[in-house]
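Lecture notes, continued. The same structure-token format from the folding unit now serves as the input rather than the output. Read the line below as a description of shape only.
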């Protein structure tokens, strides 16, 4: 065990997970690459859990942060804050939500916590509908709506949570149905559930489940849910912490694959908008955002230096069409990985869209998860110079591939080749 690892274990919680048998200290990065304390260089296909969304050490962002830090770093929301207003205006404009208001937080967890506060207050109900296999953060309320046992350390909650079918297409009781039949069955399940409970405040759903292993329903499922929810006045919260800002390639927001019945009432975001700086937030229709009847502030949400980073990063994403790049390069990468999977009996599925790709591993000849191999592939990929993630819920074990959105074709091919070698070496 290296010295830093020993010090980590002595002063930080046992439940604070680390990747790799010999944990990695990343010291610096540039573009799509990072370096460790020993000087080893890696292609980064996980970006700090989808957070370094654009590129490491992106000059436009580092310059904006440096210049803002030289003026003022922080003043709180008790004072007018030009960078916060400017970023809120831009996010409201691209949100797709009419008369949108934006509230900034410091993380996706805090954003989802705020969305739950707004929804339950607006609807005067503490019942929440959530998806099985979901993950929404680590606060007390966010854990209470997380449908993934591996990330749910307590059953206590201020909320009554009811779980709905539909977040995972390839497993569960409806897996054998066609897409249309799957949607119909999930809608009927939702209708049946609503007949047995007091009126819920909201449904919260990730358009693509992140920690759950990059699983998703057929396009249009949440639009069909929306029709049912509207009939009962139930709000729709789209958790876009991992799917927002063009990562899926086909859309700027993940919910847009389910847009037939209109936009969500509330959208939560975080991770990629700051390109590594700590930004989260909530977008909601004004009557929902303004429903609180007590004072509220955010000490660190919207602080000037993070807002400067968000403005510079969002401008870069839009001006360089990184959504289009995610669609083009991500499409090539997923097809390349499907070609690799065709030769590996332990790969059950390669799924995802854009630069959000899951590779699900099972024991050959069975449908049982293979977490040991997933861990071994992570180790082998690191030895080859590639960093990836892993995830999955009950009965799944998935590799998570989510490079920065500026990924080049050559880098996609290089990463795919390393991952192919890692899979072969662990068969």
């Amino acid at each position: 065990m290296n010295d830093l690892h020993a010090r980590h274990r002595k002063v930080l919680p046992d439940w604070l997970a680390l990747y790799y048998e010999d944990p990695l200290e990343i010291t610096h990065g540039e573009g799509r690459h990072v370096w460790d304390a020993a000087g080893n260089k890696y292609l980064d296909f996980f970006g700090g859990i989808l957070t370094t969304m654009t590129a490491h050490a992106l000059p436009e962002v580092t310059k904006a942060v440096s210049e803002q830090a030289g003026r003022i770093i922080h003043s709180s929301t008790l004072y007018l804050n030009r960078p916060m207003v400017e970023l809120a205006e831009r996010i409201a404009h691209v949100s797709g939500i009419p008369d949108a208001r934006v509230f900034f937080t410091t993380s996706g967890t805090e954003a989802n916590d705020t969305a739950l506060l707004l929804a339950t207050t607006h609807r005067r109900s503490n019942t929440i509908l959530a998806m099985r296999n979901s993950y929404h953060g680590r606060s007390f309320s966010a854990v209470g709506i997380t449908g993934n046992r591996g990330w749910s350390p307590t059953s206590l909650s201020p909320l009554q949570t009811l779980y709905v079918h539909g977040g995972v297409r390839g497993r569960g009781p409806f897996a054998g149905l066609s897409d249309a039949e799957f949607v119909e069955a999930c809608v009927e399940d939702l209708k049946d559930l609503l007949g047995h409970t007091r009126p819920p405040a909201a449904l919260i759903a990730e358009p693509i489940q992140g920690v759950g292993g990059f699983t998703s329903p057929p396009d249009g499922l949440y639009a069909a849910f929306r029709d049912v929810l509207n009939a009962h006045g139930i709000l729709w919260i789209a958790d876009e912490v991992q799917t927002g800002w063009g990562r899926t390639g086909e859309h700027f927001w993940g919910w847009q694959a389910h847009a037939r019945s209109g936009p969500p009432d509330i959208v939560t975001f975080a991770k990629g908008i700051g390109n590594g700086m700590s930004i989260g937030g909530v977008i909601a229709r004004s009557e929902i955002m303004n429903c609180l009847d007590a004072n509220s502030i955010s000490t660190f949400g919207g602080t000037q230096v993070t807002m400067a980073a968000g403005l510079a990063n969002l401008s870069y994403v839009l001006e360089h069409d990184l959504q289009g790049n995610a669609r083009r390069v991500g499409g090539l990468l997923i097809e390349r990985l499907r070609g690799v999977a065709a030769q590996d009996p332990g790969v059950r599925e390669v799924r995802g869209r854009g630069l959000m790709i899951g590779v699900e591993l099972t024991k050959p000849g069975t449908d049982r998860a293979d977490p040991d191999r997933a861990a071994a592939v992570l180790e082998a990929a690191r030895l080859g110079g590639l960093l990836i993630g892993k995830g999955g819920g009950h009965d799944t074990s998935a590799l998570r591939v989510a490079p920065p959105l500026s990924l080049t074709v050559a880098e996609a091919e290089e990463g795919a080749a390393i991952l192919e070698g890692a899979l072969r070496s662990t068969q």
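Point for the exam: DSSP finds 13 helices and 15 strands in the chain.
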